[in-house]
Amino acid sequence: MKLAVFDFDSTLMDGETINLLAKAYGTEEEVMKITQAAMNGELDFYHSLVKRVGTLKGMPLALVEEVCNNLTYFYGAKELIKALKNKDYKVVVFSGGFDEGVNAAKKILGYDMHFSNTLHHRNGILTGEVGGEMMFSYSKGRMLRKVQAILCVGEEDTIVVGDGANDISMFPYAKKTVAFCAKEVVKKFANIVVDKQDLTEIIAYI
User: Fold this and answer.
1) Which candidate in 7, 157, 163, 167 is catalytic?
2) Quick check: 133 and 143 in contact, CB under 8 A?
3) Catalytic residue status for 195
4) Does 9 qualify as catalytic in the annotation?
5) What is the layout of strands, in order, in the sheet containing 89-98?
6) What's the CA gap between 84 and 90, in Å, rounded?
7) pLDDT confidence bin for 39, thresholds 50/70/90
8) Of the four listed, 4, 103, 153, 201, which is most buried by Cβ atoms within 10 Å?
């Protein structure tokens, strides 16, 4: 058995779930300001996530689900996942985004499992709070080691794919590390760089 782990937002999915939710709810400008502060190093991943989700307080869960059921995926996502499965890879998604998005995508893209965050809600309305397995900048690396232990898969049989700074924590534990349409800081840590928005480009490396 081998293991392939993907980031979700801006790696499999074309965009950022939190931005799409904020746009639908009318808090996009506020979220963009928080994102910019995070990019400037004023906020870490955890505080940025908490603050951005806080802007969604009062959003109907039905609207969240509507947005998440209409996400757009990068070209080649289905084909790459199918190719990996044909070569005995378990395909897992680690997302700093939310269950509603990755659950919807799993039905379409066909990966095996996912670990993500949960938008808290009460009586069908978001409370503005968030929890889950992917809350911190180091969460993905920690979870990768756990999944490898459960599946008895070593680093030499692991490939990871991501685009953002919070994906870097996975890279020390995989032989093949792919920066897909990634930020420059991520490319420095990867041994495979794909700048074309076509996930089938990765098939050559599996």
Assistant:
1) 7
2) yes
3) no
4) yes
5) 125-132, 113-122, 89-98, 2-6, 158-162, 176-180, 192-194
6) 8
7) low
8) 4
